[in-house]
Predict the 3D structure of the following.
Amino acid sequence: CMKKPWFVRLSALSFVIYGLHAPLVAYAINAIFPLVQNIFEYRLVIYLLLPLGLMVFCIGTGIILRNLLPKFYALATGGRGL
């Protein structure tokens, strides 16, 4: 996988994904469950789709922070992924 340029770019954001996903899961579940209670098997649907959405959000946040605020990004991640 490390021969793929896209994988190397995304792996540089692993700390951002790690640091953001845990608190976001708790808040997102509490926010989304009441909105989708009418969907059949909504808990399973959320269990399968929420991680994908959070990964996209975390990766996007990491890319934006790294490009717009590189000093803050370096401080927040301990210099990982620069």
Observations:
- The mean pLDDT is 88.
